[in-house]
Specification:
- The protein is mainly beta.
- It has two helices and 15 strands.
- The strands form two sheets. Strands 1, 2, 3, 4, 5, 6, 7, 8, 9, 10, 11 and 12 form a twelve-stranded antiparallel beta sheet that branches. Strands 13-15-14 form a three-stranded mixed beta sheet, with no helix packed on it.
- Strand 10 and strand 11 form a beta hairpin.
- The longest helix has 17 residues.
- The relative contact order is 0.16.
Length: 337
Amino acid sequence: MRLFIAIFSFICVFISELQSQEAKPTWYIGPYGSLLYSIHETEFLELPGYPACCTENRSGNGLGYDIGLLLHIPMQDIGLRFYFGMNSPSGTIYADQKIGNQFLRNTQPPFDTIARDILVRHQIDATITALSLRPMATFPIPFGGDIIAGLGFSYILTNSFSQQEQLISPDNASFIDGRGIRNESSGKIPNTSLFQTSAIVGYSHNLPISTTSRLIPFIEYHHPLQSLTSYTWNIKKIQVGLALNFGIIPYHKPIIKTDTIIQRDTILQTSPSIAQDSIGLIDRTIRNIEGIVESGLRVDTLFVKERYVFIKQVIPQYNGGIMAVGLDNNEIGRAHV
C-alpha cells in the first residue's frame, strides 16, 4: 500500500507540474491516511449464543486506521469531497465486576483452595474492517480553513471477536483450573448490520505545496446513525489525518495561428526558340513546426521552399556575306576550245 501511494503521488506530481501555471484545476485527487480512534458503547450483557457472567454493560475504545483516495471538486462558495477508503474501527470493550466468595487456587505452595471476593474483567476484543464512502461538503470560514460536513457509508468486510473473563484480584491466586482466564470464546460478531451510516463534521485546511498540489490536514468526528448489531453497540469515531491532493487541469484546444515563411530560388536560362519569356515552378517542399501553447495560443511556423526556372527569350543574330564568281568573254571562249 505504501509503494502504491508513493508511485501514485509521483505520477500525480509529474502530471500536475506539466500543466500551465495560469490554468486553475477543476478537480483534485490524491491519497489520504488517518489515525482512527474509535469509542465503543454497548447495552448488552452477553453476545447472543455466547454466554457470559457479566452483569454490566461493556464499553471501551481502540486505535485503527483509515486509508484511501480523496476526490475534491471546488465550486463557487463551497466544495465537494468524496472519500473512498478502507477503515478499521476495531476496539476492546470491557466491564469490571466484583464477585463475592469465589473458590480460587493459591498460586504459592501449598497450592490450596481458598475462598475470596474477587474482581474480574469481562472483555471482548472486536476486529472490524470496512469499505467506506464519505460524500462531504466544505464551507470556507473567515479565519482560514474549511468546515466539513457530510455522511459516511460503510460496508463491513470482517467482524470477528474474542471474549474472556480475566481475574484481576487477588493477584496471588488463580481459578480452580490454575489459569487466570475463563469463559473464553470467539467467532463472528452475531447479528451484525453490514451496512453502516454516520453523520460527520470536521475541520480541514489547505496547504499549497506547488502550483497545483496541496496538503490537507483534517480532523473529523463520526457519529453513528445506527447500531453495529441488532442489540445496542454504537461506535463513535474521531479521525486525524492528512491528504495529498493533485490538481487536474482539463485540456482545452488552443487557438492556432500560423506564421508562414517562404523561400524562393530562381534559375535563369535563355532560349532563342521561344516566342516570349516564361517562368515555371520545378520543385516545392512544405514543412510545419508546431509551437508551444502559451495562454491558450499556439503559433505554428510553416516553411515553404520553392524552386523556379526563368527562361528568357533571346533574338538570334546571323553573321555572313555574299561572294559572286563570274567569267568574262575571253575566259568563256577558252573554256570551249
